[in-house]
Amino acid sequence: MLKKIIFSIAIFLYYLNTPLLANWVKFGETDYAIHYIDLSETSSGNRYIYYWVLTDYLEPQKIPTLPEGYSSKKVYKQTDCKRFRTSASQIILYKDQMSEGETLINESYKESNFTTPTFESIGFEELEKICSYIEK
Known about the structure:
Layout: H1 2-16, E1 24-29, E2 33-44, E3 49-61, E4 70-80, E5 85-94, E6 103-108, H2 122-135
Antiparallel strand pairs: 1-2, 2-3, 3-4, 4-5, 5-6
C-alpha cells in the first residue's frame, strides 16, 4: 500500500512539472524565439513575484558545455515590480521545444543579481506582462 501511495505521489509530481499543466501565454517574439509566461503558477511573497518563463527557440541553441543543442529554456524568476527588476532562481534547458524532451541542464541559484531590462526589450515586455497581471 505504501508503495502505491509513493508511486502515485511521484506520478503527480512529475505531471505537475510538465508543460501540459502549465498555462503558457505568449507575450513576445524575437527573431530567434517565441517567449511565453505561465500566469497560472505565479506566487508572491512580501516583496517579490515568482513565476516561470519559457523561451522556445526557432533553431537549436549551442553552448560549449553541451555536445548537443537545446531548443527551449524555462526560467523561474523572482521579480520586484516596484523597482521593475528581475532575477533568475532556476534555469532549465531542454532538448525539445516547449520544455519537452530530455533535460540537458537544470541549475538553481540561491542568490542572483537583479537586473532592470532595457526599454522595449523582450525582458521589458515580460515585466510589463507579469506586473500588470499581478496588479489586477
